[in-house]
Write a structure and sequence with these properties.
The protein is α+β, with helices and mostly antiparallel strands. Helices cover 40% and strands 22% of the residues. Helix 5 (129-137) crosses helix 8 (176-189).
């Protein structure tokens, strides 16, 4: 599904980027920093399988004129639900013109059997989530080492819950950089769980196994 509106090149203070590591293995565009962070969050969300940028144009009326509106993203989830999403800063979400857009989008979604959501920085940037996701993504270019991965999962299963620093103390035989790469990959994949919102991931962060990993080891 390609964007229905032509993507203009970056000019002046306008922000545009292309995010290649997306769920549907296609480039996903972002026209603001908030949209970039939203796509990063969608890529992390295991319930989302596909992300499409501006796939539809919706006609709406405002101040007596017919206009056209291009919602930012269409998401497909693992249960085959489609969600049309507008990414908007809170300070602009309540503007009259935007309200008219959102009403038209909600009505359009009813005809398609989709949902429509307006997502602001409150949902996209809670606490330290974006900081932590950016840090975890830095290791995606490196390959996982299965033996190290299995070692980490086994240690955490034995301990039940433990700090990152304690895990490193018990893993001195493994190169620290290699250990960190595999740990970050496991956190990003959700196999190892830690709080990504309340605090930055540090040596004091508490690690636990995802519930279904207890059974598979």
């Amino acid at each position: 599904m390609i964007p229905i509106r032509k993507i203009r090149p970056t000019k002046g203070r306008n922000y545009r980027s292309k995010i290649s590591r997306s769920k549907n293995l296609q480039i996903v565009h972002a026209e603001s920093l908030l949209e970039r962070d939203f796509v990063r969050l969608c890529n992390f969300d295991k319930a989302i399988t596909n992300i499409y940028f501006q796939p539809v144009g919706i006609r709406f009326f405002y101040q007596g004129r017919e206009r056209k509106y291009f919602p930012d993203y269409l998401l497909k989830t693992i249960d085959d639900t489609f969600v049309l999403v507008e990414v908007k800063l809170k300070e602009f979400a309540g503007k009259d013109k935007n309200k008219a857009k959102f009403l038209a989008a909600a009505e359009f979604c009813k005809t398609k059997g989709w949902k429509f959501n307006v997502v602001t920085e409150d949902q996209i940037r809670p606490g330290y989530l974006q900081y932590n996701l950016k840090m975890l993504l830095e290791v995606k270019v490196h390959k996982e080492v299965p033996l190290v991965t299995q070692f980490l999962l086994t240690i955490i299963k034995q301990k039940g819950r433990m700090k990152v620093g304690d895990l490193f103390e018990l893993s001195r035989s493994i190169n620290p950089s290699l250990l960190l790469i595999n740990l970050y990959k496991l956190i990003y994949s959700g196999c190892i769980v830690t709080d990504l919102i309340k605090t930055k991931v540090t040596n004091e962060s508490i690690l636990t196994l995802r519930e279904d990993n207890h059974e598979s080891l």
